[in-house]
2OGFeDO JBP1/TET oxygenase domain-containing protein (Suillus fuscotomentosus), 214 residues
Amino acid sequence: MNSIGHLLNDSITTRKATEWRTHESNFYPSPDGKITPGCINISPALFQQGREKHGFPKLDPEDGFSPQVSAALKGDVGRNITTSLQRSGILVSAALRVMHPDLYWAGIKTQVRLGEWATQYHLEDMCHHLKHWASVFNVVSVICNRWSPPHRDPKCRPEAFDIMTTAGVYHLVIMDFMNLGIKFLYDSGSMLASSCRLVRHHMHVEQGSWIVTA
């Protein structure tokens, strides 16, 4: 976590509270100081918000196809981050292979084609990260010491799963899938999957040190 501590710290905003995912009011400090509160997205080939492309067009950057290595992965430190995420990426990918095979293979196909595109345009940094990226998901969110109000994730496709894993030392936390009427004990080491666009969910924690990857 030391390698991304400054990125987590810089991610917290003080703008209007409607931007709750990074607003300071939804984060709390770690009691031992080992976890830096914050929320960042990490990706070997990330489309900037508002510039997403559906499908694979002509694969020409001049036509607007311009994924980029996320800020967290740029430089030598970024390569260490990609390596540190490999274990969790393998576990999540194995779980998705069982739970949602179609989504698993769609993710594999996308990353292979992104690798071919990056190779064609000699994007060495992107090629490196795609080669060592172990998760079938193209983007991983790292969330530290944040509570989440009831919400859905409208940018997710209805048929897609989001897999949320947690680690750390913290007090009792319940994940509530509200419109399903289901609650889960969200202990350290837990892995939950759902259609986050369809399932309204929330969790609340105010003590301890915890990390969620999604």
In short: The radius of gyration is 17 Å. The chain has a mean pLDDT of 84. DSSP finds five helices and nine strands in the chain.
